[in-house]
Design brief:
The structure is a homodimer of 258-residue chains. By secondary structure, the first copy, chain A, is α/β, with parallel strands linked by helices. Helix content of chain A is 35%, strand content 26%. At the A-B interface, helix 1, helix 2, strand 2, helix 6 and helix 8 of A face helix 1, helix 2, strand 2, helix 6 and helix 8 of B.
Amino acid sequence: MPDKTVTACLLIIGNEILSGRTQDANLAFLGRRLNDIGIRLTEARVIPDIEAVVVDTLNTVRTTFDYVFTTGGIGPTHDDITSSCVAKAFGLPLSLHPEAHARLQAHYPPGQLNEARLRMAHTPEGAQLIDNPVSTAPGFQIENVFVMAGIPQIMQAMFEGIVHRLVGGQPLLSRSITVTLPEGRVAKDLGALQDTYPDVEMGSYPFNRQGNIGTRLVLRAADPARLTAAAGELDDLVKALGGGGEWDQDLPNEGGAT
Amino acid sequence: MPDKTVTACLLIIGNEILSGRTQDANLAFLGRRLNDIGIRLTEARVIPDIEAVVVDTLNTVRTTFDYVFTTGGIGPTHDDITSSCVAKAFGLPLSLHPEAHARLQAHYPPGQLNEARLRMAHTPEGAQLIDNPVSTAPGFQIENVFVMAGIPQIMQAMFEGIVHRLVGGQPLLSRSITVTLPEGRVAKDLGALQDTYPDVEMGSYPFNRQGNIGTRLVLRAADPARLTAAAGELDDLVKALGGGGEWDQDLPNEGGAT
């Protein structure tokens, strides 16, 4: 019996993403890194800095997915409401975390740890800190919810510090081939191949690069033997259609298969 | 009494976004363009190509938000399930749309409109087409749901063709200033200013550009007079903190205020 899929949801919290002022970069990073350790990013939601929305959404997703990651809203300003929303969602008081307090005291010159910055040392009671090697102010974990910064450089550093706390299943391995056929030419045979390999996820992504039309076909599976077998049949299939194509060197963080 | 806020939700449908293989570019575009016409992108969800998830999510968001936009999953391959999911969500049959059919017949050379491509001419019964000036295969609208392609170039062209069907409220105008102060220095006074202007949304976004630490402060409001007044007070405030700063030339599509 295959392992149960371990699922995760990302909550991107911030008006600046929804207004289009800031381009999110955390989703793609998290999707790749989670896959490395056998956790599937199954959903992501982008929500505004509105307390009721954040609290309700948190309570929905933390009981639906194995892991929840949040990004954004843990700075010192009035619009940074994530920590207090997480406390409300769990029905816990928000209180000064002694270790977070000590870190901020060590970080700021005397007199500069003002009231606003002190907000960044508050967590729901009982939270476990997430280190911030970039700018000190920590994130935190409470049960299956991991609260991280929105700035990608900090978020990524925080994530690397908590990877050991996450328990994944079997990572999906992947292979992809870029073919010189339009999607509509390969669709029927690809659909038939998908029926033959229900355990291999097959995706088809058309592109138009300065008039060069083609399709990237992506196979993903937990079982390397099945992946290799499906890739072999797909290779035959595109050749039979007169398309040919090149198998991509998959990036290591996409789970490069043999 | 202020106009009711007109809300929208974006559903980004596709495993390739969640796996991190493809970076979404549609959210930021839609957030900006909707704001131009007085519609607020209030939430976005990224969901996988799984029928039950797409149908359930559609039925949740189409009854929660004034408008729903979907991107992705309307091509010719087996993993393109958006149109059939929309039909299921509305309890409508999925059928060949005569006008969509005619457009594809005119587009493809004789014999090339195969079964897979014909899938792209199927819509929930009664749907109104959304033109695709890039590659012909149309999107469609049914009630308050607008189904569009995932490829940004096509999605953007589709959106420009439906703008006239959308009824917005008052657009949010915005001003922003980039200051040479860390966020923690400006937080307290900014919070107090926010309390004075509850109708002006104030956001604070710290940055670290090669060691140059600063903060971008963004004000958004429907009323230009209130926006100007708040901006004036914010300008005084950052000067008093010794930070100074430069007001950005806001982009026209962010609703540049006077």
